[in-house]
Design brief:
The chain has two domains: about 35 residues; about 50 residues, no CATH class. Helix content is about 75%, strand content about 0%. The longest helix has about 35 residues.
């Protein structure tokens, strides 16, 4: 009985792993589609982000993927309307 349960559990893990990876890939793709064109407005928002996070300013193209993703998460919570209303 233990052998059957162990086999079923192991099989489930093997089947679940690709499904989870596919979901992560879907979220990464959705996030990249939401990204905006980098322009003067985005640069201004990025400078506000750096200031709020108390980080040292570094050019966008010098940030690693983790740092860029952190910015995009912040940016989703601070859309253009929010930025205009709160940061003038």
């Amino acid at each position: 009985m233990k052998r059957i349960l162990g086999t079923l559990l192991l099989g489930t893990c093997f089947l679940a792993t690709p499904a989870l990876r596919a979901e992560d890939h879907h979220h990464d793709r959705a996030r990249s589609e939401q990204r905006r064109e980098w322009n003067q407005r985005e640069e201004k928002a990025y400078k506000r982000y750096v200031q709020e996070q108390k980080r040292q300013y570094r050019e966008w193209n010098r940030l690693n993927t983790k740092e860029q993703n952190s910015y995009w998460k912040w940016r989703q919570r601070h859309d253009d309307t929010y930025m205009e209303r709160h940061y003038r």
